[in-house]
Amino acid sequence: MKQRIKGLHLEPLWWGLFSAGGVCFAVLVPSVVLVFGLLWPLGVVDVSFTTLQSWYQSLWGLVFTAVVISLPAFHAAHRIRHGLHDMKIGYGGSTTAFVCYGSAMVVTALGVIAWWSA
Amino acid sequence: MTQPRTCYVDISRYDPERGDQYPTMQRVQVPYDDSTSVLDVLQYVKEQVDSSLSYRWSCRMAICGSCGVMVNGIPKLGCKDFVRDYVAHKGVGRDHAANDAPALTIEPLAHFTGERDLVVNMDEFLTHLEAVKPYIIDPASRPNNPSAATHSQTPAQLARYQQFANCINCGLCYAACPQFGLNPEFVGPAAIALAHRYNLDSRDHGKHERMQVLNTHDGVWSCTFVGFCSDVCPKGVDPAAAVNQGKVESAKSMLIQLFKGSSIGDSRS
């Protein structure tokens, strides 16, 4: 076991979530904003609330939570943590990692709870 | 004959043997034309103004990588950077000297320890370069095994790493990298680009040795993808791309270790 974890650290995990979140931020979040923030209120697309609710209650709702809420949250958390590092805030310590990724985990948990109780 | 155009240049001077505590700026008036490089300016100053000025240079054609300096705060090769660009940028008329603000400020490379004037201690970069073993590692190569065949390589295999092979070890990317400025233990752009270059080489078998260095916090993971290293590279190497491709390789290497259960040094990836 010692050999297995020798020299390993969590940075690749955070970076992996950051990369995946970056793709979601760039591709999915703008389209969600376009559809639900602009086209729907303007009446360009017509989605019934009940259709939307039944869709959200399915497994697709959980996928939506992951790619539109959770991964972008981890992306933002990673950026903020490294931004703080650049400003020498919490330099070298794990406090900023705890706060940033912890916040992303809380956001993720809230998303899952919202989906579960929907 | 018209009078040559002139401009003012501030040059950072520092000589600890003379008792200098801090670097100071020396302002000099220098002649220039369209072909005057920053290195030409330094040579003019050394020959005509102050022979005590120290700086490194050799080839004058952007291949030796010796003459790296900060020009107006940006890392540049002295021989590949021209006075005309700075004077033109300032929008001043033909005789820049009429306005005695300096057109150029020349300082030693940032993030390195200054030794004297524009000379810095490059060992701080060379230690990192040495650590990543930037040479072909092949236990079955000819010196060890005289009966081995010579290496052959297809153009496609060459193309995989060729871009990263253009590094001239000038250190401009280290002067540009804010992460190296914060943490001098960071292996840094050029060394990681060269590690990546050898990892991508079909003749090489030393990737597992280099990954031990790249996988650490001070390896690829100190990079926050600022990208200024690639902006300042005088040879178009794009070290930022190498570092971030290195992150993918490092993540793979660590995942393989986690599943195989052997330390990074033992696992051949």
UniProtKB/TrEMBL annotation, chain A:
One of its GO terms (biological process) is fumarate metabolic process. Keywords: Cell membrane, Membrane, Transmembrane, Transmembrane helix. GO terms for cellular component: membrane. The chain crosses the membrane at residues 12-39, 59-77, 89-116. InterPro entries: Fumarate_red_D (IPR003418), SQR/QFR_C/D (IPR034804). It comes from the Bacteria. This is Fumarate reductase subunit D.
TrEMBL record, chain B:
This is succinate dehydrogenase. It comes from the Bacteria. It holds the Pfam family Fer2_3. Its EC number is 1.3.5.1. Residues 157-187 form the 4Fe-4S ferredoxin-type domain. Belongs to the succinate dehydrogenase/fumarate reductase iron-sulfur protein family. Its cofactor is [2Fe-2S] cluster; [4Fe-4S] cluster; [3Fe-4S] cluster. The keyword Iron-sulfur applies. SUPFAM superfamilies: 2Fe-2S ferredoxin-like (SSF54292), alpha-helical ferredoxin (SSF46548). It is an enzyme of class 1 (oxidoreductase). Coiled coil: none annotated. Keywords: 2Fe-2S, 3Fe-4S, 4Fe-4S, Iron, Iron-sulfur, Metal-binding, Oxidoreductase, Tricarboxylic acid cycle, Ubiquinone. One of its GO terms (molecular function) is metal ion binding. PROSITE patterns: 2FE2S_FER_1, 4FE4S_FER_1, 4FE4S_FER_2. GO terms for biological process: respiratory electron transport chain; tricarboxylic acid cycle.
